[in-house]
Design brief:
Chain A is an alpha/beta fold. Chain A is 48% helix and 14% strand. Chain A starts with 5 loop residues before the first strand and ends in a 6-residue tail after the last helix. Classes of the chains: A alpha/beta (447), B alpha/beta (184).
């Protein structure tokens, strides 16, 4: 039975071409031959080959040059070099260029069969590896980061910049802004993406358990430790360790963590064996770490160790132009999950969503959309489908200061006037100079 | 349509067990097989550099004896065969062509420094004749270790396989050759 594989034989000697052709035909290959480099390149252009067997010494273009030219056309073909003039130098050169193997004429039939068989096996494994890597990338792809505002574009640029490095990253932002999503985006764009990203929420785990959670423990290390357990640091080997709410980590643990970050070595609780873990650290916090240092609850040396690259995530109220796109994204997400049709957003609802301050940020928006998808009966989202504070047209976040209210009002008017300062100042009843001063003071962008 | 196979014993090679090869290969191939004596100028195909005979050239010469399109010819010789790129071959065939060639040189135990074993030689020769004839009927190497069409690069491989076609090769033969076979 034909094996469906294609071989190209390149040799200037007709007797060699013909005998190899006969040999491989009997093995079930589809065989084509070429008498020199130029003819071989023409054939390479007209179709891919699984294996190319090249004679090293040929008049005109020699085997090494041909191998180099073939690699420009097809980097995946398994190349086997055939020569009567074996030498270590040429063999090494051929292999450096990516030849699978090197055989000397006349070759033992068994050696030739094995070389070809192994080349096919390797090619198959490489193809499988490529397929699996693509699959892993697809499966581990984090949720998309939605947002075309200038501040989010800046964040996306920073992710691209830092992802390819091994630098420690701190992501700062209010609760619900999507810090873990950013951490996963950094991981998925890094060289470590084929290894795990291991997330630990330092704020949600009691201090007594956090140490074991991070470092793992040996059997009998403490009451209840019935089995050896690997910690998150060990599990993150090769990948990324994401420590959320790093500002909440207890002081004693900060010392231990600093030591691990400096040496990448640690012991499991109750263990004597030193364990090495090669991980990239990404931290997130919604707290002001500098203030924590001031008050003595966060170590300055740990701060400088983790604070190599900082990404500030803007709160949702500072990027209201992203709200419609985020809303549509969540509507599609929940429509798909619930098996419901995708709903429209009426202009009235969109205005409500955009004007709301979203103290819970994107998480709160997602919850609001999920609620609307659950209870809404109309083909489009209605104001009554939204949570109560949102549905009120005068919705304002509770506990706002006068300055915050003024800022939001200016933003709203600016949006309504499409960023036109003269019209916005007239609507606000102030002159343009005063408006400019307020824009500077509140760091408001005109877009 | 092929109706018979000729076994051409080359240049006075007339082993006492020739008739057993005829019977054994006929039994598996299912065609009438007849032994013929052929004289060729073998020295023309000798390579002094290698101390072996060029199988490709001998096969081309053998085909000059083939004129009946309803027959296939399989030459049998005792000289050691090579093709230019390989150190040796047990035989050679034209895939889906009229002829094939088999050498008993490396099928003999004595070649490997072992005591002579006539039965083993007969068995190996039948397998190689059937194998090369199979190629001439268009069969390629088979993955089934017990099938006679399994590739053999060492004599041990020849011993491991049987002299029969596996079911898949057998059905391929039936489909492609449409031959007047007798049940094996």
């Amino acid at each position: 039975m034909k094996n469906g594989k294609k071989i190209l034989i390149v040799d200037d000697e007709m007797s060699v071409r013909n005998s190899l052709r006969e040999w491989f035909l009997e093995d079930g290959f589809a065989v084509e031959t070429a008498e020199d480099g130029n003819a071989a390149l023409q054939r390479m252009h007209s179709g891919p080959y699984d294996i190319v067997i090249i004679d090293l010494k040929m008049p005109g273009m020699d085997g090494i040059t041909l191998e180099r030219r073939i690699r420009e056309i097809d980097k995946d073909a398994a190349i086997i070099i055939l020569t009567a003039f074996a030498s270590v130098e040429t063999a090494v050169e051929a292999l450096k260029l990516g030849a699978f193997d090197y055989v000397t004429k006349p070759v033992d039939p068994d050696e030739l069969s094995n070389t070809v068989r192994n080349a096919l096996k390797q090619r198959q494994l490489e193809a499988e590896n490529t397929r699996l890597k693509a699959k892993v990338s697809e499966l581990t792809l984090p949720s998309p980061i939605i947002g075309d505002s200038s501040r989010m574009r800046r964040v996306l640029d920073m992710i691209s910049t830092v992802a390819g490095t091994d630098a420690n990253v701190v992501i700062r932002g209010e609760s619900g802004t999507g810090k873990e999503l950013i951490a996963r985006a950094i991981h998925s764009q890094s060289e470590r993406r084929f290894f795990p990203i291991v997330a630990v929420n330092c704020g949600s785990i009691p201090e007594t358990l956090l140490e074991s959670e991070l470092f793992g423990h040996e059997k009998g290390a403490f009451t209840g430790a019935q089995y050896r357990r690997k910690g998150k640091i060990e599990l993150a080997h090769g990948g990324t360790l994401f420590l959320d709410e790093i500002g909440d980590i207890p002081t004693k643990m900060q010392v231990d963590l600093l030591r691990v970050l400096e040496t990448r070595r640690f012991h499991r609780l109750g263990g004597n064996q030193e364990i090495t873990s090669d991980f990239r650290l990404v931290c997130a916090t919604n707290r002001d770490l500098e203030a924590l240092i001031e008050e003595g609850s966060f170590r300055e040396d740990l701060y400088y160790r983790i604070n190599v690259f900082v990404i500030d995530l803007p709160p949702l109220r500072d990027r209201p132009e992203d709200i419609p796109a985020l809303t549509r994204h969540f509507i599609e997400k929940y429509a798909h999950a619930m098996g419901k049709p995708v709903k429209e957003i009426s202009p009235e609802v969109e205005a409500l969503l955009v004007s709301y301050a979203w103290p819970g940020n994107v998480r709160e928006l997602e919850n609001a959309v999920e609620r609307a998808m659950v209870i809404g009966r109309e083909p489009s989202v209605q104001p009554e489908d939204l949570p109560v504070p949102l549905a009120r047209s005068d919705a304002e976040p509770e506990g706002s200061t006068l300055a915050a209210i003024e800022r939001r009002h200016i933003e709203r008017v600016l949006r309504a006037e499409q960023g036109n300062i003269t019209r916005a100042a007239a609507a606000l009843g102030i002159d343009r100079g005063t408006l400019y001063n307020k824009l500077r003071r509140y760091d408001i962008e005109r877009t | 349509m092929v109706t018979r196979i000729e076994l051409g014993f080359l240049n006075g090679y007339a082993p006492s067990w020739a008739e057993r090869i005829v019977e054994g290969s006929a039994l598996v191939l299912g065609y009438p097989v007849a032994a013929v004596e052929l004289e060729m100028e073998l020295p023309r195909y000798y390579s002094a550099d290698r101390g072996q005979y060029n199988a490709t050239l001998i096969l081309a010469g053998l085909l000059r004896y083939h004129s009946d399109p309803e027959s296939k010819i399989v030459g049998i010789t005792r000289v050691d065969l090579f093709i230019p790129v390989l150190t040796f071959v047990f035989g050679q065939a034209q895939l889906d062509g009229p002829g094939a060639l088999v050498s008993t040189h490396r099928l003999r135990n004595e070649y490997y420094g072992l005591p002579r074993d006539r039965e083993r030689l007969v068995e190996r020769t039948i397998k190689e004749v059937v194998h090369e004839a199979g190629h001439s009927f268009g069969l390629v190497h088979c993955q089934d270790y017990s099938c006679v069409m399994h590739a053999a690069t060492y004599v041990e491989d020849v011993d491991l396989k049987s002299s029969r076609f596996c079911a898949s090769c057998e059905s391929q033969l039936q489909k492609d050759a449409i031959r007047p076979r007798e049940t094996v």
